[in-house]
Specification:
globular, 80% helix, 186 residues, 0% strand, mainly alpha, 7 helices
C-alpha cells in the first residue's frame, strides 16, 4: 500500500499526460506531490524525507519545465532524485552522517523486529546505492535515446516495475539473512 502511495504522483502524471500533454502532466505532478506531502502530514504528523526531496525537485524541475517550456527539466528529475538518494545512502555509512546505514534507519523505524548483523545492513545499503544509481542511469538513457511517450511509459511502468522487483528481491535476501539475535544466518 505504501509503495502505491509513493507512486501516486507518477500515476497522476501518467494519466494527465495521456489525457493532455507533458505540460499539463507536469502541473498535475506538482499538485499531486504537494497533496501527497499534505496527506502524509495529516496521517503521521511527519514528513517522509524521500517525499520531501522528491517534492522539492518536482517543484524546481517542474517549475522550470513550465516556465521555460522545456521538457528536459522534468525528464531529468528522476535521475537527479535517484542519484541524490544514492549519495545519501552512500554518505550514511560513515559516523559523520549518523554511523548506521540509512537503510537500517529506515527499516528499523518501521519494523523494530528486523535483525541483521551490521555487515548485512551495510551490504543491504550498498544494494540500495546500486539500485538508485542504475535507476538514475536507466531514466537518463530512456530520456536521451527514446521519444517522450516512451519516457512517460518508462517513468510509470519501468520504474515502478523495477522498484517492485527490487523490493521483492530485497525481501527474499532479508529473509535469508535476518535472525532473531542479529547474527548472520547459516
Amino acid at each position: 500500500m505504501q509503495l502505491l502511495f509513493d507512486f501516486l504522483p507518477v500515476i497522476a502524471f501518467f494519466v494527465a499526460y495521456k489525457l493532455a500533454d507533458i505540460y499539463v502532466a507536469t502541473l498535475v505532478i506538482i499538485v499531486a506531490t504537494v497533496v501527497q506531502l499534505s496527506v502524509n502530514w495529516i496521517r503521521t504528523r511527519s514528513f517522509n524525507p524521500m517525499h520531501v526531496v522528491s517534492a522539492g525537485l518536482v517543484l524546481v524541475f517542474g517549475g522550470l519545465t513550465l516556465l521555460i517550456h522545456d521538457t528536459a527539466f522534468i525528464m531529468w528529475k528522476p535521475t537527479v532524485v535517484n542519484w541524490l538518494f544514492a549519495a545519501a545512502f552512500f554518505a550514511s555509512q560513515w559516523r559523520t552522517f549518523g554511523g548506521r546505514p540509512l537503510v537500517q534507519r529506515l527499516m528499523t523505524s518501521t519494523d523494530a523486529r528486523l535483525n541483521l548483523a551490521p555487515a548485512r545492513w551495510r551490504r543491504l545499503n550498498q544494494m540500495w546505492i546500486g539500485f538508485f544509481l542504475v535507476m538514475g542511469a536507466a531514466n537518463l538513457a530512456v530520456f536521451r535515446y527514446f521519444d517522450e511517450a516512451t519516457w512517460v511509459n518508462f517513468k510509470l511502468f519501468g520504474m515502478f516495475g523495477l522498484t517492485l522487483v527490487f523490493i521483492v528481491a530485497q525481501g527474499f535476501w532479508i529473509a535469508t539473512h535476518a535472525t532473531d539475535d542479529g547474527m548472520p544466518a547459516g
